[in-house]
Structures are given as structure tokens and as C-alpha cells.
Write the C-alpha cells for this entry.
Amino acid sequence: MKLKKSSITEVLEDECKDIKEDAKFYQNLIKDIFIYISKHENTPPDQKASQIQKIIDKNV
Amino acid sequence: MKFIKLKLKNFKPYFASGEPQEIEFFDKNNEGRNITLNIGQNGFGKTSISESILWCLFGENKYPNWEEFVNTLSIDVAKEMKKEKDIEMTVELITEMDGDIYKILRIGNFNIDEGRKEDKLYVTCNGEPEKEPEKFITEKFAVVELMEYFIFDADDVLKKFEKNQEKEIRDNINKLVGVERLDKMIDTLESVIKIYEKKILDIQSEIKSDASEKKTILWNDKKKKGIAVEEYEHRIKVNKGKIRKLFLKSKPSPEENRIYSLLKNREELESKIDNLNEKYTIEGIASNLDLKLLEPIMDEVIRSVSRETSSKEEFDNSSELIKTTLGINYKGIMFNNKGNNKLIKKSANIDSKELDDADTLNLKEEGGNKSDFIRTLNKYSDLLQTEKEKFDRIYEKHKELKGTLLKIKNEINQIGETTRTKDIKEKINEYKKMKKQNEEYDKEKVKIQEKIKENDEEIKELEKEIEINEDQKKDIEKIRKRKKITENLLDISRESRKSYLDQLINFVNKKASQFLRNTVKENYRFNSLEINTDYQFKLKQKNGEELNQNQINKGTLTISMLSFFIGLSNYIGKKIPYVIDNPMIRLDPGHDKRLIEQLADSKDQIILHLIPGKEYTDYNYKWMRPKINIQNWIYRNEWEERDDLISTIERKKRSELIEFDIDEF
């Protein structure tokens, strides 16, 4: 039985494809955000939100 | 990964006065057989083996009160020995991963007098110490909460599942499969959207939206006023034309000639005076001088002050001179040591102390070259004097012209009073009337022009405000764009969570159902398992209908739960050995055999803790035998005078059925 099994980042990248014109932009941005979230599990939520906001501001 | 051996010293019932007790889990000679059995009655120390592995890996993180695990006999022995107050409790787990041998050792020290405790983890790989042992554990195993899906008591976990899928289980699984990180990302993105919304609201509340509207009103008002000024100018011009024509005849009398010539002179004079007024009104010349002189004075003074040192007295004198020079519009200059020298308007609300402080800031030590400084100021003071003299001359001229004008006015009046010609008298009256009218028109015109000037100033201020508003509007647009992108990211994250979970559930459902079918066989009343995104499972009958809750007994639930665990661990892909307490206690006959056979076929190492007589029977032994790698028997040594236990473990031959006295149970 061969079952499909993808990592979360693969799924995230795949979902970005729906936004055709900006797929690459969203793929890079969401990957950066996901990496930050994964690395900062214990950071307080408000600090996390402000850091993510900075990542978005830098890209937009 | 394989657990090879466990060494226990003073952990719960595993008392050791010298060398630790050893439990073997894997024998290389029996490769291909992946089931290890630890056989012992309830309360003999089977669960303590599971606990010791978890303490060895996670220490205080798993068991904050681990000192309660210290063997009670070892405490009594230490008390007897008097000097020995520190008891050592150790657990060493020897594992094999990809051909390397890892020794994971946790040493706990407990001081029985002070209740003080400390523990430390050591890891070696083929004898070489690992620099970051804690990191090694997280990478090779799973986080502490998740290890209970590999090392668990089937009966205990069953109770949790019976309580309608506790949130704890759902959270742990989400953490295990990474969904928790997606949830955190979703929460964080929602917070970011709120931050952007707040930013937009903050800026919007700052914007004075009526500035543009006010400006339009003022512009329209200015236009109307401008037309009014033009109208007055037109009327004045018409009157002037009429005045000129009053005394212009083909054959004028000498009186009329004289009046005409006086009027002509008067017109010229008035024009000259107007020009002078326009260029040098009294206020105008003063403020013009201020502005003209201000800039070079400031530059030079600042240069001097920063170049030379000067005393407080010098500085005060200079400031005084500057104030005089600047005339009526300014209080003075405020210096500070950051180079932000400001011209203080008279209307400015400045604390005198602030001025003093600002002055003091720039004062350096006494003894500077004051002559240079004063010379600079004097130079500009002289220039001011020259400008004032020029103004005086213009003012004198203005006065002289006004005097001549008065004489002309008087002469015309005199002619009007002394003339005997009625026509001339009437014309002079007419002329005076129009002149007066023009003066009124002019006065009104000036009033309106002043208002236009005020309007212009106000418009300038509004334009500044509008300019700021425009920037703010641009900021809002930018934030809106960022918010929109964050909303898209949020949609992507939510969709990804759904897709990922669907994919995971689909995978786990297939694996779990396959495991379940193999355990219960096709012809059983249920044959598939369906798990939803909250990890609640439903059992499906052959006809596709769901099994009722009252049709699910503990045995059914245990198989479902284990099937689910197997499916899940297949998805995670971590090859961590299973250590399962009481796996078969609730199972229906026949299911236990197929369950263990399947576990054995999975090639993962399976360490089972079985109760003799219940799970470990003559019948079970027969079908399990080909799969058994090692079997251990847990003995209990009971002291007559005390209730606590000392357990020992003995490895038995794989091929022999461990004898036990059934009467004991």
C-alpha cells in the first residue's frame, strides 16, 4: 500500500500555488514564518506576533 | 532503534547495594525475533521498568518528584551507615541505532537529611561522550509528552480514550505530528491581522479629514474676495476717469485749468506715495530688515560661538545685541550644544528657565576670544543702522510728498470756496464726493486684501496638514496591503492545516484499518476504523454502518486504540521501540494472538509487560515463542518484617515456558 505522505512545508508550499501570480512570493514568506514559529515554540505569543509582523513588513 | 539493556540502581523496587541490576531487552543471537517479554505479577515492578526508561530520558521534566522513586531499603541502609546521607539512584539505557551503541545514563543524588536532590544526564556514542545530551534525547526520541505513545500502559491509556478522547490526547498528537505548529502559526497570523487593524485605526484617528474641505471653503472665499477687490479697483478707476473728465473742456476757464493741473499733480503724488507705501510700510520695513539680517547674523554668531570660548557675561551681551537687532518679532536665539539653534518668536511660549539652560549649555570655560565674537555682531549691527537710515530717508520723502499733497488739497478746497462760478463749485463738490467715495472704496479694498492675506496663511497651514494626511493615507494603504497579504497567509495556513490533517488522517485510517482487520479478521462484525480530525474514532461494520457505543467493549476499544497508535507511529516514521504494559488484558480470545503477530511483523522492537496466568499462558506462549527475542522473569523478595519490596530480574531461556505457580494468582 503506497500512501501519500508530505511534510508540512510541502503542504504549505502546495497551498500557495492557488495564488498563481504570487505563488513564489507566498511560498517564501510562509516558509520564513513557519521556520520562525517552529524555532520559537516558547516565545510569548505577543512577541511572536510582533516578530512575524516584522517579517511581513520586510517583505511587503 | 533497539533497546539492548537497562541497568537499574535503587530505582523503585530495584535495590542494588553494589552493581546495578540489569535487564536485557535484546539478544543479537536471536535477531529477527523482535518481542521481549517481562513477566511479572501486578505490583512486582513491570511498570517501574517503563517509568525508569522515561526518567532516564527526561528526568525532572517527566517526574518532578523523582525522589519518591528512590528505593526505600536504600534509604534505610544509608541511615544505618550514618555517614552516608547521599543516595545514588541511577538508570542506564543501552540502545543501538544504525549500528552505533549509545549509553544513556542518568544519575540522581538524593540527600536524605536535607531533602536536596540533583540529577544529571550522560550520553556516550561508542564510548565517546555526546556534548549536548539533552538535545540528543529530543532529536532521537520524541518530546516528553509524546513518548507515552511509545511507552505506555494499554489499560491506563484506554481509560483516557474511554473518557471521550481527552483534550490532552488530541493536543499531544497534534504536537507529535506538527499540527500544533500550524495552529500556533494560525493564532499568530490572527494576532498580526489585529495589530494591522489597530495601526490603521490609530492613523485614522490622527487624520483630520476636514482639512481638505476647509481648504476648499477658504479657496472659494479667497476667489470671492479677489473679485470684490477687483470690483473696488474698477470703481476707483471709473471715479478717477470721471474726475479727470470733470475739468477737461475744449475752452477751459483759468480756474478750471488750474484745478485740472492740480488734480494731475495730485494723481502723480498719490501714485508715488502708493509706491512708497507698498514697498516700505513702517511694519514692513522693520520685518524686512529682521529677515534680511537674520540669516548672516545667525550663521556668524553660531560659527563664533562654536569656535571660540566665551564667558557668560559676553554671551548675555551678545544675546542682548541680537535681540535688539532682531527688532520686534523675536525674543532671541536659543542655543544648545546639539547645534539646534532656534530663533525664538515673541509669541513662543518658552520657559525662561529653559532659555537659561539652553544658554548655559553652550558656555564653555571663560577666557575665550570675545573680540571676534563682538566684532561680528557689531558688523551686522552697523548694517542694520545703514538700513535704518535708508528707511528714514524714504520716510522723510514720504512725509514731504504728503505735505505737498495736503497743499494741493487745500488749494482745490479754497478754489471751491472762493469761485463765483456755480458750475465749478458743483464740479468741485462732485469731485470731493467721488474722492471720498474712492477713499472708502480703498479702505474696504485694503480690509479685504488683509483678509485674503490671513486666508492665504491659513491655507498654507492647511496644506501642510493635508500633506501630512496624504503621507498617512499612503501609510494606511501600505498597512492595508500587508493586512491583505496576512489574510491570504492565514487562509493558506488554514487550508494547509486541513490538507495536512486530511492527508494524515487518510494515511492513519488506512494503516489502522489494515492493522485492525488483520487483528479481528475480515469476518468479524467490524472491520474498519475511521478517525476524524479530533482523533475520535468510529468503528465501521462490514455494511459500512457505524458501530454503536454500547457495541464497543473494552477489548474492541483497546484494539482500535493500538491500531490507531500503530498507524500514527507509521506516519511519524520514528522507529522508537514500544514498551507496552498489559497489552492483552482486555482483548478477546484470538485477537491477542493476531495483535502480537502483527506487532512482531512490523520489525519494530516490542517490549511487552505481561501478567502471568492472564496474558502469559501456556497457550499464548506457544504461538508467541517463535517471535520471542528475550524473556525475563520478575521476582519479588519480601522481607518478613517490612512491607516494601525488592525486585530482581532473571533472564530465562527463550525456548522455555517460564514456570509459575498458578495458585499465587
About this structure: The two ends of chain B are 35 Å apart (CA to CA). Chain B touches chain A at residues 178, 181-182, 184-185, 187-189, 191-192, 195-196, 478, 481-482, 485-486, 488-489, 492-493, 495-496, 499-500, 503, 506-507, 510-511, 514, 571 (CB under 8 Å).
